[in-house]
Amino acid sequence: MKKLTTLILLFHCVMTFAQNTYEVFQYDGKYGVVNTSTLTEFVEPKFENWNDWFKDAVALRNGQEYTFYNKTTGKDESFTNTEQGARFNSDYHMHFLRDGKTVLIPRETKNMLFFDRRFDEMKGSGGDLIVKYNNIFDVYVRPDFKTPKIKSIEATKIYDGQIFRKRTQKSEYVTIFYGKEAVFVYDKNFNLLKKYNKAANYDTQMYDAIASEFTKIDEPNEEYGVMAAPDYWQVMFKDGYSIITSQHYKISFSIKGDFNPSTLYGNHNFVYLRDKTTQKRYAFIIDYDKKQFQFPKKYQEELQLKFVD
User: In sequence order, which residues have a C-beta less than 8 Å from that of residue 220 and are 6 or more positions away?
Assistant: First the structure.
């Protein structure tokens, strides 16, 4: 049964990989889009950067301007990045603008959310979303991100986390809005527990305002480790060509010139190549099962890129 499950998962991964008609490539340091069915150039390499985080679209950027190309249809949409974002509804969402209004885009871009105004700040609260604009807050509660559950909370600051409630003698998760003329305490479902008509500009003043019923809990710090990426490649330079072997697939390919390969962490099918002499950079996906470089043929021919038996 375990072997059957493994085979099903592997088959699903292969099928998912094969369904992408459009994929990213890099030529001479610039990014474009290749049609993987015809190996023709769908979008010329004219973008400075590529964001590999998005799953169902190739996200290319020049400065703060992003263009997303759907990996199945090739349809494109353009947005301006704000360098903000929030994690909610089980996914991180990057904050973009289109026509001056907020668009929140998760890893699956098909689930992007459009709003009728620009948000200054945003914060995830479990599955829910808190947004700020014009020094007021709205709260959207999963799964409805079209109509806020709470509108126009007069505040400038937020605290969310565990706090000790004297009435129940238990630790409870709350969200507290403060910074203007009142302090609002909401439970985990954003039902109002208490409103204190006291001004609180600092967190110490906020805790003083709610002290009759709530007490701060000091939470311990957490330490996180980092993991080094493994060495995916073996390289041999011979007669003017680099022979590069994937340590994962045990398959080799050659390219004219002295190249240094690298990869995306966790993605054995993606390769970055840097020419040590010219410093030019190239990148593309390799389908090892089909022995196919998902890279326009004209560039394959130029670089004399081929598999080695």
Answer: none
> Tell me: the pLDDT tens digits for 129-153?
999 999 999 999 999 999 999 999 9
**d(Cα 106, Cα 118) in Å, to the nearest integer?**
17
Which one-letter amino acid corresponds to residue 257?
G
pTM for this model (two decimals): 0.79
Question: Whole-angstrom Cα distance, residue 307 to residue 291?
Answer: 7
Strands 292-294 and 306-308: unpaired
* Cβ-contact 127, 142 below 8 angstroms: yes
Query: Are the CB atoms for 15 and 271 separated by under 8 Å?
Result: no
Selection from 263, 256, 264 nearest residue 280 by Cα = 256
Query: CA 112 to CA 106: how far, in whole Å?
Result: 6
Which amino acid is it at 270? F
pLDDT digits (tens, 9 = 90+) for 85-112: 999 999 999 999 999 999 999 999 999 9
Residues in the chain: 309
DSSP lists the bridge partners of residue 219 as: none
User: Among residues 20, 34, 24, 22, which one has the least CA distance to residue 74?
Assistant: 22
Q: How far apart are CA 254 and CA 305, in angstroms?
A: 6
- Rounded CA-CA distance 114/124 in Å is 16
